[in-house]
Design a protein that fits this description.
By secondary structure, the chain is α+β, with helices and mostly antiparallel strands. The chain is 35% helix and 26% strand. Strand 2 and strand 3 form a beta hairpin. Helix 1 crosses helix 3. The chain is globular and about 40 Å long.
């Protein structure tokens, strides 16, 4: 279980709690992406690395697929002005930070 101020994430339960104390269910892929980002906090992860880690090396979802998952995870982060942030690194991928920068 991870906690970032008022935000909480339970990877094995596939759910997050936002700053308004709402429980939001996650798909397995969403939970895996968020876990990967958290485990690599402050490190830029390419879309290809995310795809390889979450879908496997023999799967070929598009980069837009990753972007669509990030959109939902960002909404959770944005429920508080402090706490985690998922930054887009243009042309590369994404970086998770535990605080807004």
């Amino acid at each position: 279980f991870y906690e970032f101020g008022p935000l909480k994430f339970w990877p094995k339960r596939f759910e997050v709690i936002d700053a308004n104390n709402n429980t939001i269910p996650l798909t397995q892929k969403e939970a895996n992406i968020l876990s990967l980002l958290i485990k690599n906090t402050n490190e830029v992860l390419s879309r290809d690395r995310i795809i390889d880690s979450v879908w496997g090396k023999d799967s070929f979802p598009s980069n837009r697929t990753v972007d669509n998952y990030i959109v939902k995870l960002r909404k959770w982060c944005e429920t508080t002005p402090i706490g985690p942030n998922i930054q887009s690194i243009r042309g590369v991928g994404y970086k998770f930070t535990s605080e807004k920068e």
